[in-house]
Amino acid sequence: MTSTPLRDHLEHPQAPAETDFLKPVHLEPAPPPSDDFAIPEEEDILAEAAAPQRKGRAVVKEIVETVVFVLLVFFIVHGLVQNFNIVGASMAPTMHDDQYILVNKAVYTHFDLNAPLRLLPGRGALPSKVVYPFQSPQRGDVVVFLAPDSADDEPDKDYIKRVIAVAGETVAVRNGKVYVNDVLLDETSYLSETVPTTCDGFQSVCNTTVPPGHIFVMGDNRPNSSDSRRWGPLPLENVVGKAWASYWPKADWGMIKAPVYARQ
Length: 264
What we know:
The chain is α+β, with helices and mostly antiparallel strands. 18% of the residues lie in helices and 23% in strands.
């Protein structure tokens, strides 16, 4: 049995029929190119390249704006409120050594309406006309102030005392008690009845009428306080602000409230 050569199995293609050449040819339209294979325009390439740069600039701008805002808030708040650390016991028992408080520096903001007019020729003698948009210092307020030059123990230091009388009121100390306009001042809410108020040889200063633009201040710890009993009424220009709140130690946390006095 002989094998059949492979060449014998090759089939020759059949020639097309004569009629096949006469059939019409149909051309199908090509489908539109897919968007996935679209060639990007030059503008798109540039936009994609610039996107990270724009994002980076936006982040930097946001950081700068945040820093500026924080600094602005800090300076505004620091201009309105300031913290102080009490050193000493002149305000005991109301406040004590190493207590931290916040002082409202804006509450006593005031303006002299006649100050610009005194710059005019012949108007230099105009008296002061001071207005307080918020409030003026009131009796009972605890205030922080720059000690006057007459405070020979520590001048130019920040003190904290209580307002006893304001401009136009008369202060007198008799039998260990304080009188304002000849009326006994009720200090029982912050002063022990066993602690007398004395003037210690400063009677001429201790018994006086408070002049305009001044206040009369005393410490709550009367035997251990250098105040208006020694160096006289305090100029309002020395006042830094009103003691507003205590924030340390935790046991002393809270608002600092002024006592309510009976009308005189």
